Amino acid sequence: MKDYTKSMIVDFKEVDRYLHLKLDAFLQMLNTTSMYHTVSLGLAPDYMEKRGMVWVLYSWNIKLFKGDYYARKLQFTTFALFHKDIYSHRYFLVKDEEGTLVGYAVSVWIVIDFEKRKMVKVPEDVQKVYFSQFDSELTKEQAYIVESLSTAPLKKRKIQDYTYEKEIELRFHDIDSNGHVNNTVYVEWAMESLTTDEDESFLQDHVVEDLSIVYKKEKMPGGKVLIRCLLEDSKSYHEIYDKEGCLLTLVEFTWKKRS
User: Signal sequence span per UniProt (predicted)?
Assistant: First the structure.
């Protein structure tokens, strides 16, 4: 397959008050890498729309070992694999300047046909763009990433009592050029649900080590969302709903103590 590598320096706006890389910023860096990969293959940003189709992000599974990378260069490498001609599994591995693996991720995408309003197979010619006639087996490193990351979607739990519930009002800049809430914003919302006006101690004392997220429904501009959260030791599980009570997103974090 044709992989792609892009280096980025972690900017001040991409770290939190403790200079730790913010998870939503890390997610955006992964998104940026995949966009540059697509363009490098000769595909215009709107190449699917011109065919009456659109890529839809279904899920993320992310692992970030450390986060003290402010003003440091990180190297992002991505490659795509296709499963049953329906799912695109885009993998990422991230290294620091010394070549040490600092994180990895997989995003799962599907294709929706505009006219039919349903999921369709990834066009064969699109799949071929990501591969070469000289392709060989996965490298040892790539195989490790694929084997280490589950693409099974996060499931909704049956919960009687949540630890927290919080309403958040949408902001103008939460909406991206697709006309709905950007995928990184749901991560921000889920993390914010662990704070109150009087208490920010959990986020002060902890950082995310693992993220699993499944996108169920798009959120259009305006209104509020309701986040329900269950906090259990080093894990937190979140459900995000719109004002009509429709489930938008499921999120699960694994946390560790901030060093």
Answer: none
